[in-house]
Specification:
The protein has 79 residues and is an alpha+beta fold. The chain has two helices and two strands. The protein has helices at 17-26, 31-42; strands at 46-55, 58-67. Strands 1-2 form a two-stranded antiparallel sheet. The chain is extended. It starts with 16 loop residues before the first helix and ends in a 12-residue tail after the last strand. The model has no long low-confidence stretch (mean pLDDT 87).
Length: 79
């Protein structure tokens, strides 16, 4: 029998994406699976990495979102 886990997120006041993903990885989500999902949407230029940190005496997983693109970043007005 397969079991599943559910989480209830109340983000009515907003949420920071990197902090939410860090919390989900800390709760047991697979970083490689999250990276694959991000690549499916945003391409290979987004690289995720995590590290264990301690802030105010509390341990957490910090997720870094790195952009590996080397383009100039300039666009014309119609783009």
């Amino acid at each position: 029998m397969m079991t599943s886990m559910h989480a209830w997120l109340d983000v009515t006041a907003g949420v920071a994406g990197d902090m939410l993903m860090g919390a989900l990885i800390d709760a047991g989500a697979d970083l490689a699976a999250v990276q694959a999902a991000v690549r499916a949407v945003a391409g290979a230029d987004i690289v995720l990495r995590s590290e264990q940190v301690t802030r105010a005496g509390l341990r957490a997983t910090k997720l870094h979102v790195d952009i590996a693109a080397t383009g100039g970043g300039s666009r014309s007005w119609p783009q």
